[in-house]
Amino acid sequence: MTFRIGMLIFPDITQLDMTGPHEVFTKMPDTEVMTLWKTLDPVTAGGGMRILPDVTFETCPALDLICVPGGAGMNPLLNDEETLNFIRKQAETAQYVTSVCTGSLVLGAAGLLKGKRATCHWLSRDMLKEFGAIPDASRVVIDGKFISGGGVTSGIDFGLTVAAEILGEDKAKAIQLGIEYAPDPPFNAGVPETAGQDIEQATRDAARARQEERLALVQQAAAKL
After folding, report:
1. Fewest beta carbons less than 10 Å away: which of 15, 43, 101, 202?
2. Whole-prediction pTM value?
């Protein structure tokens, strides 16, 4: 039978959170990968890329795996009952409930991560505690049927981890080879621990307004649970 994967998209999504694992998932045999949103209108990602939803919340079939990516646009989703109810409904029957980057905060707002280990983008990881989740700094975290990836580029690692869970390690390795995923970044600055204090602080300063807004919305959402 076809394995159905649904990837939530929304305005101001970080497209790589979605397109990284999407590339992996489309290489899995007998798998249907669909993008989903409230309407079929194009969604404009952060940076301007436009993405078309395949199905709406109303027309989406039962999913074997639901994935919630992150990005600045997930802030409004934290208290968006239409979106949260859709995620809760799909999570009831899905084999896997997953996220990339700050998408895990949306799963938390849906009340799905209490007592669960989960990861998130490093800037927002501690906010998971507001939902009773256990923050984990690992790049990919598996806790039962819940699988979360860290920030942005970890979506590819996340996708390959999911592929290994479903297909076995050898087939996941074949997908990795097929997309030539062999990271060799020019700088060792991908996490705060290696980026250095000045770069870390500049990154925090640039994101301050968004993070303050996010924390307030997280606390508002957590109070409803």
Report:
1. 202
2. 0.98
